[in-house]
Design brief:
The chain is α+β, with helices and mostly antiparallel strands and about 130 residues long. The protein has one domain. It contains 3 helices and 3 strands, in the order H-E-E-E-H-H. Helix 1 runs antiparallel to helix 2.
């Protein structure tokens, strides 16, 4: 029982952390450079960086470009919050599964009792078949 209480405390801690997460959005932010050919040179020069936020909406990938600034910082923070949210949800699910396993453990210990119930049911059904 102590182990279950420990896991429940961890679960409650994760729930509190989930409540504290601010705005979030799915997607990713990548740094990209644009290859540009200059008049005086034959080779390509990379201009940038510029930043692209991409996400899927309705099965289609949508992208938006951003320059360095407050809006880029806001979007990066929201994407980071979403990834953090996903990690915490995975942890929460794993803890819940552990708690469920520990709570169902006593029924496994009483396996002999379960076997006796099954034997009684088999006898009942056998009698019913014989009566017909």
């Amino acid at each position: 029982m102590d182990e279950i209480k420990e896991l429940e405390a961890k679960r409650d801690k994760i729930k509190k952390e989930l409540i504290k997460i601010g705005d979030m959005r799915r997607g990713s932010v990548t740094e990209q450079y644009l290859p540009v050919k200059h008049k005086d040179r034959d080779d390509l020069v990379l201009c940038g960086p510029y930043y692209v936020f991409t996400t899927k909406i309705g099965g289609k990938t949508i992208g938006r470009r951003f320059q360095v600034g407050p809006e880029l910082g806001k979007i990066r923070r929201e994407v980071r919050n979403f990834h953090y949210f996903q990690e915490k949800c995975k942890e929460l699910i794993a803890l819940n599964e552990q708690i469920c396993e520990l709570r169902s453990l006593p029924s496994r210990v009483l396996g002999d009792e379960e076997g006796q119930v099954k034997k009684k049911l088999r006898k009942r059904y056998k009698r019913r078949r014989e009566e017909k």
